[in-house]
Design brief:
Elements (H helix, E strand, L loop, with lengths): L5 E9 L6 E11 L9 E4 L27 E2 L4 E2 L4 E5 L37 H14 L5 E7 L1 H12 L7 E4 L7 H17 L15 H14 L3 H7 L24 H11 L7 H12 L10 H6 L5 E6 L7 H10 L3 E6 L7 H4 L2 H12 L2
Parallel strand pairs: 3-6, 3-7, 4-5, 7-8, 8-9, 9-10
Antiparallel strand pairs: 1-2, 2-6
Helix pairs in contact: 1-2, 3-4, 3-7, 4-6
């Protein structure tokens, strides 16, 4: 399945909390065909470091398809013979420097100054992301979405669609995400990642675009993110306690030098470095902040009141090995959501199973999508 990126000019947007107004544009992709009645559309929301490239390839020569290609396509769990699937780049997309990402963020040029926004970019929430997605859906002249779904940060967005636009959505699917952001998840990886970037001397209060970006801080932030989204089982299976170089020729002995490295350190670092050419550190700061600010409850509301407002049918699919959004949280949320089903699996590999072990998602997604 071949796809292409489309640019959407969302116009001037006033952020919900800062009330600052700036022009916004972002990219999106679609899969399948919108029917004449425009009633077969679904929205897929991407994860923290993801993009709108959820399925298909831009060219037959592309080495890999979109991140949920195993779920989205002809005859698949999210069947493009039946549904018109939409996925958009969020604002402040971390992959700002990728040629296949279109996003407005801190690295974008402020038309009033002719320089990057940097830290003058408005602090935003995932609520703002959803409001801008609504503009895209309206632009496509779609009045109703059959469902909204996504993994991790995408799952959080699906809950916000249920909160703000219940008349537009029939049901939601949240994969490895619960409708609450616990303090532990707020800190790791979100707030600590922000601090890691800001402590890099090259960050310069976000004004680094004319010089060296804070790559060391960004690397540390991503290493914390990857550690939080994996498990001991994953690390032990893939690396164990092996030294990077048991002969101590290319790497020092960890027993005699702080420069000595274990294989797990190098493995995690290299998996991040391979993608860092596309990342903007300030974009990470802003999207991490948006995740830490996620809250379905209005000010003064209890969790019971906030979740009780979500009347749509909800499907939560949770990996029992996930260290960020746990089974315990999902079971608590299920008792507070008026119409909620849960499905659990145990990959033993943590949060990122939602991208790399999607075999666990196929049946629960297909069953819920096709249910009357």
């Amino acid at each position: 399945m071949l796809t292409r990126k489309v640019r959407f000019n969302a116009g001037n947007y006033s952020f919900l909390h800062s009330r600052k107004t700036i022009p916004i544009e972002f990219g999106y992709e679609t899969y399948g065909q919108l029917n004449e009645a425009k009633d077969n559309a679904v929205l897929i929301c991407h994860y923290f470091t993801g993009t709108s490239h959820a399925a298909g390839r831009y060219d037959d020569s592309d080495p890999a398809p979109g991140w949920w290609d195993s779920l989205i396509g002809s005859g698949k769990a999210i069947d493009t013979d039946k549904y018109f699937v939409i996925c958009s780049d969020c604002i402040s997309n971390i992959n700002f420097n990728s040629p296949t990402v279109i996003t407005t963020g801190p690295a974008s040029i402020n038309p009033e100054t002719g320089r990057p926004y940097g830290m003058t970019f408005p602090i935003f929430t995932l609520d703002d992301v959803v409001m801008l997605q609504r503009r895209l859906v309206d632009h496509l002249k779609i009045k109703k979405l059959r469902f909204v779904a996504g993994p991790s940060m995408g799952g959080l967005q699906s809950f916000l669609w249920a909160k703000y636009f219940p008349e537009m959505v029939e049901k939601i699917i949240s994969v490895v995400a619960t409708p609450m952001m616990r303090p532990s998840c707020l800190m790791v990886p979100n707030q600590l990642g922000i601090e890691a970037i800001m402590l890099d001397e090259s960050w310069k209060n976000g004004d680094y675009y004319d010089g060296e970006p804070p790559v060391r801080g960004l690397l540390l932030a991503f290493k914390m993110l990857l550690t939080a989204t994996r498990t001991d089982h994953w690390a032990n299976t893939n690396f164990g306690r092996k030294f990077l170089d048991p002969a101590f020729i290319t790497s020092d002995n960890p027993y005699t030098s702080f420069k000595g490295r274990f294989l797990v350190e190098e493995g995690i670092e290299q998996s991040v470095i391979s993608r860092m050419q596309f990342f903007d550190p300030n974009a990470y700061v802003y999207i991490a902040k948006a995740n830490s600010l996620f809250d379905l409850c209005n000010q003064g509301e209890t969790l019971e009141q906030g979740l009780g407002r979500i009347k749509l049918p909800v499907k939560m699919i949770i990996d029992e090995s996930d260290l960020m959004f746990t089974r315990e949280q999902a079971e608590e949320a299920r008792t507070l959501l008026p119409d909620c089903e849960t499905a659990f699996y145990n990959s033993r590999n943590g949060h990122l199973s939602c991208l790399f072990e999607t075999k666990y998602l196929l049946e629960p997604v297909r069953k819920f999508v096709n249910a009357d």
